[in-house]
Q: What sequence folds into this?
């Protein structure tokens, strides 16, 4: 079974992949992950979405494809070169804010005044480092 037949990939996927290759960036979200991100983002109408690890913007593009006009995406990365690519392709979308900073510093800055409906942790900060702090940023987080 070929799970990739009906993914309806974004038009810019190939452009982002080419741009990633120019800077040697090889860890962009694949189409199956992107399709999942789009669906998850769509499940959060008017939501606040956080992406930790912008890269060249592949995951960012899929998340933007899923969110509605009232939702907002904040994407964080500390690599200026790759973030510049993401901004070039996606920066005109008013629903996204790019944060060029360390992920752990961003996570720390959010406590007490920010919460997110969906977090895509695609970088060590949030995925492996400061995991509890990242999970605490989710709205309606339930701890057992």
A:
């Amino acid at each position: 079974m070929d799970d990739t037949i009906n993914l309806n990939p974004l038009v810019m996927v190939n452009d982002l992949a080419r741009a990633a290759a120019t800077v040697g960036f090889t860890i962009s979200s694949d189409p199956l992950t992107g399709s999942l991100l789009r669906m998850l983002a769509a499940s959060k109408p008017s939501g606040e979405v956080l992406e930790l690890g912008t890269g060249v913007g592949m995951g960012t593009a899929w998340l933007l494809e899923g969110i509605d006009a009232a939702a907002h995406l904040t994407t964080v990365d500390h690599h200026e070169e790759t973030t510049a690519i993401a901004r070039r392709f996606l920066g005109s979308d008013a629903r996204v804010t790019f944060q060029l900073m360390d992920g752990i510093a961003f996570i720390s800055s959010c406590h007490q005044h920010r919460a997110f409906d969906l977090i895509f942790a695609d970088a060590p900060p949030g995925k492996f480092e400061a995991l509890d702090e990242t999970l605490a940023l989710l709205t309606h987080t339930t701890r057992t």
About this structure: The mean pLDDT is 91. The chain has seven helices and four strands.
